[in-house]
Design goal:
With about 140 residues, the chain is mainly α. The protein has six helices and two strands. The protein has a domain of about 100 residues: Arc Repressor Mutant, subunit A (Orthogonal Bundle), CATH 1.10.10.10.
Length: about 140
């Protein structure tokens, strides 16, 4: 999934911690990208009811309490899918080869088990957990 997921978490940490609505320009500067990329991410988050923006008011606000917003929900909003998909299978194994003939079902089972564990971990981690870790990192300075 490229960097959309980490950029989305970064964006949400900024929005959650801000006293006033954060703009895509402000967020993009912190993420180290351009505002149009942030607008794509915020558009997906808004579509899923995680954040909101209002006509005539610049910036985004968080609609879900950080304690109730799991990383799994964020992942699903950004990936636009219900399941975590970390690994891709190569598409054209040689059916004339014994390994090639059986590799896809083997790896599908292995990868799915790993992805289920990742889903559980993401579901058990909230935006509030990330905010707390951010505070800990800031306090180290």
């Amino acid at each position: 999934m490229d960097t959309r997921f980490s950029s989305a978490i970064h964006t949400l940490i900024m929005i959650a911690g801000a006293e006033t609505p954060m703009t895509s320009d402000q967020i993009a500067k912190s993420v180290g990208t351009n505002a149009s990329y942030i607008r794509k991410i915020t558009g997906l988050l808004k579509k899923q009811g995680i954040i909101d923006s209002r006509q005539g008011i610049s910036g985004f606000t968080l609609l879900v309490e950080p304690e109730k917003l799991s990383l799994l929900r964020i992942y699903q909003a950004i990936a636009e899918t219900e399941e975590v998909h970390v690994f891709d299978l190569h598409q054209n194994p040689n059916d004339e080869c014994i390994v090639g003939r059986h590799i896809q079902p083997v790896l599908t089972d292995v990868f799915r088990g790993i992805e289920e564990k990742a889903e559980q971990e993401l579901n058990n981690t909230s935006l509030a957990d990330c905010l707390q870790k951010m505070k800990t990192e800031i306090d180290k300075e």
